[in-house]
Amino acid sequence: MSNATLDWHQRAKELQLRNRLWIDGGFIDSSNGKTFSDYSPIDGRLLTEVAAGGRQDIDLAVKAARRSFEAGVWSRIPAQQRKAVLLRWADLIREHAEELALLETLDVGKPIGESLRVDVASAASCIQWYGEAIDKIYGEVGPSRTQALSLVEREPLGVIGAVVPWNYPLIISAWKLAPALAAGNSVVLKPAEQSPLSALLLGELAEIAGLPAGVLNVVPGLGPEAGAALGLHPDVVKIAFTGSNKTGRFFLKYAAESNMKQVSLELGGKSPQIVFNDLYDLDATIASISAGIYYNQGQTCNAGSLLLMQRNIADAILDGVVDAAKALHPTNPLDPDCQLGAIVSEEQLKTILSYIEQGKADGGDIVVGGQRVLEETGGTYLLPTVLDQVETSMSIYQEEIFGPVLSCVRFDTEEEALSLASATKYGLAAGIWTTDLKRAHRVSQQLRAGTVWVNTFDASDITVPFGGYKASGSGRDKSLHAFEGYTQLKTTWFDLS
Ligand code: NAD
To answer: Which member of 301, 338, 400, 408 is catalytic?
Structure first.
């Protein structure tokens, strides 16, 4: 059945919600019986009470992971066997695509069409890609002295703790799980409390695909409890974290206070779109700038939330971006033609609205949007918002709003554009719009950002690394480079004299 003809509203009512901890190949309640409430931002209804993992549950999951790692049931089997399981897992995700997409949309309010076409599809292809890659990665023989043979091999680390946010629950989980598992590690995944549902099904599907019990455990729970317990656990050798800067700092502290585990951080962003006055296509540029900020309701780490426009083209760009915002209305995310869904929670909506208020108080001009809508539904919806007359000193310039809010600034010269683009603590991504490719390359080289898009925005696939400079973090997800983060180098020196 096509996306358009499926009755997603009806399907949502019939959906089975897994709400217990997935540990050692089975669903169990939390050891102290605690739960947390999982609400849908679509209409504010309680979806389910989810078992809240605590310190004891994390300990149970880490023990299961460590047992499986040391037994070698996954860590020491041939790469070809791990590949077969990962490929089967990717197939199962595709077979359960509608169910996974519904879970994602119910939990976080993203449009059902996007959940299906982007989130589920990308998670499956990420797992497939690492599955296909794992038996094509070779070790090295060092150019060491004669009468010696030096082998340099990559070995799995052990038990990985993966802690992920709510904005792309399936995709970001897959970015961590696929390379970690392909490399032979065991994992404890802690999904965000706003979005535990798809991760629990993901865990169960992995087991059906043939992943041995204990190799992947999924423990929902509150950040300061389950997240902290994982960060502090002495048997976890690495934390792969994606989330806010504030929580990233906690994980560095947990590591220092426990076993000095490795910590990779994928953090926030405030990505500038730099638009010069020599464009290939004004309309296409405007469409891309709009998608770059409004996709996923602006709740994207690399959202292009700062629009820097060369002065003599600024009015045309701004008019187009405002028209695009006016044409985009939030609707029920379960409607197949929904393009703008709900903000993930009341709390997040309030945060965004308070940034908008502060922006106004600081002298920013709200050109369009700025209001909550559809409140009668019980859901959390916000109009796409554009603020003009923004200055670098304002919080709406400096801070990650994580909502559909675009802050606009004008510039005259390339130097000024570069200085504006570098004026925040973040360095996740940036966009450059110009027909002058020499300039594009020159500007890209000077931008302290992990990804720079030229004449496009947010274009990507699994083959390239993704991660931040500066306060946007230190780790890299995706591509073969991600393997490096889940392995350690072992040198074996044979004396042949
Ligand atoms: P968050 O930091 O609040 O939560 C992320 C995870 O950390 C959740 O699982 C949460 O339960 C856990 N956590 C929260 N407090 C904790 C604590 N005290 N100890 C241990 N764990 C804790 O972030 P969020 O609001 O879920 O996600 C939004 C943030 O994620 C934004 O800043 C966004 O930019 C960032 N993000 C970054 C990327 C990237 O690749 N760079 C991708 C997506 C999102």
So the answer is: 301
